[in-house]
Specification:
Layout (H helix, E strand, L loop, with lengths): L3 E4 L2 E4 L4 E7 L8 E7 L6 E6 L6 E3 L7 E6 L4 E6 L8 E8 L7 E2 L3 E6 L1
C-alpha cells in the first residue's frame, strides 16, 4: 500500500508560481506511475499531468503544457508539480495519485488547495 501526502498549495496572484510536492510512503514508490489531478469548485476531478515510474515519460493536458511541469525523485519518494503563469481558473484542490498501470490511480492523496487571485 502507498500513502500519499500533498503539500505546497496556497494563495497566489495570477501570473505567479507554486510548486506542489507529493510525498509517498513505502519502498515501492518507483514501481508506480504518478499523476496530478485537480477538482475545481463545482467541477469533476480532472487529470493534469502524469509521469511514468522511471521519470522518462511525461504527459499533460493541453491547457497545462508549457505552464506546468511534473517531475519525480525516486530517491526521495516524491513527485512534484511546478506550476507557472497561474491563472484564476487554475484554482482547485490538487491531488496526486499512484497507479501501477496507466494513470488511473490505485491510491490517492488527500489534496492541497491552490487559489489563484486575479
Amino acid at each position: 500500500q502507498v500513502q500519499l501526502v500533498e503539500s505546497g498549495g496556497g494563495l497566489v496572484q495570477a501570473g505567479g508560481s507554486l510548486r506542489l510536492s507529493c510525498a509517498a510512503s513505502g519502498r515501492t514508490f518507483s514501481s508506480y506511475n504518478m499523476g496530478w489531478f485537480r477538482r475545481a469548485p463545482g467541477k469533476e476531478r480532472e487529470f493534469v499531468a502524469g509521469i511514468n515510474w522511471s521519470g522518462t515519460t511525461t504527459n499533460y493536458v493541453d491547457s497545462m503544457k508549457g505552464r506546468f511541469t511534473i517531475s519525480r525523485d525516486n530517491a526521495k519518494n516524491t513527485v512534484y508539480l511546478q506550476m507557472n503563469s497561474l491563472k484564476p481558473e487554475d484554482t482547485a484542490v490538487y491531488y496526486c495519485g499512484a497507479a501501477l498501470r496507466g494513470y488511473v490511480p490505485d491510491y490517492w492523496g488527500q489534496g492541497t488547495q491552490v487559489t489563484v487571485s486575479s
